[in-house]
Hints:
The protein is an alpha/beta fold. The chain contains nine helices and 15 strands. Helices cover about 35% and strands about 25% of the residues. An eight-stranded mixed beta sheet has the order 13-12-11-7-10-9-8-15. It has a seven-stranded parallel beta sheet with strand order 3-2-1-4-5-6-14, with helices on both faces. Bound molecules: NADP nicotinamide-adenine-dinucleotide phosphate. This is L-arabinose 1-dehydrogenase.
Amino acid sequence: MEIALVGIGKIAVDQHVPAIDASPDWKLAATVSRHGTVDGVPAYTDFTAMLQERPEIRVVSLCLPPVPRFAYAAEAIRAGRHVMLEKPPGATLSECHALEALARAHRVSLYATWHSRQAEQVAAARAFLAAAPLKRLEVRWREDVRHWHPGQDWIFEPGGMGVFDPGINALSIVTEILPDPIHLTTAELRFPENRQTPISADMAFFHPQGAEVTAHFDWLAEGAPEWTIEAETEAGYMLLEDGGAKLTIDGAAPEAAPPGLTGEYPRLYAQMAALVQAGGIDMDLAPMRHVADAFTLGRRVSVAPFHW
Ligand code: NAP
């Protein structure tokens, strides 16, 4: 299937282009971006023009930041295209619900991707927790924003989510691996006094069986990042590290999974191909709901200004 990639920035170049190039399902047939291009691929700067001039391209993958993404997604759906959304799937929950309704009305596929759910050991962690009553789960997601998002001012603007931009990846894993639904009970969000989004946050959740569930996000952690989820259960101690790539249970690695597609983005594109073929919609908004709850319920604390 021919696909157009929209918003040729960091994640498009780092992950989407190589995943599409390596996929047997997809051919990158066009890009749309005001500044970015991909060698050898017809480039457009105007999305409407691409949709009109290239009717054979049935699928678009949107790699823009969340705030501008809605208008592009709605236009693509109205033009009868299937749409793949980078995470988070929108700037607000209402936008996401509106896109889903629009996709149903136009009978096209819509995929809210959560790349971290495709990390190597997430499925094994889910399988372990399915049969391991939970006592405590703690998320520690700490990285250096200057290293991972150099100069990306949109993440500090309204809708950019701040530290929840990476934090929502952790929440996408938690909501995938926990068999029980959780919901936020308290949060503290720390906003640099010159910015619109938090630079660190702590969250605590209600768990139906009374387990202690917390998450800690920090964007000012220099050095090696920590992307860890640890769980104490009645069946042992689970440590999921490196953003879901490494798993140990009581210090030992689980049995290797049967060979399959490797890499988060190759798996996302395989899922999108299956979704389009089946005419399906996959719009799980659980990670986004927790972030929205944190902005609704969280205590707001003003901290030192942030400069790049
Ligand atoms: P980015 O490089 O800052 O932006 C991607 C591209 O979007 C830009 O190059 C720009 O292309 C276009 N764009 C930006 N603002 C726009 C606007 N107002 N209107 C139209 N186009 C605009 O961001 P990114 O890091 O790739 O992140 C994009 C999305 O991927 C985010 O939702 C992010 O959470 C997600 N993501 C990022 C990472 C990562 O490591 N960076 C990892 C996983 C997921 P032009 O200027 O050429 O139009």
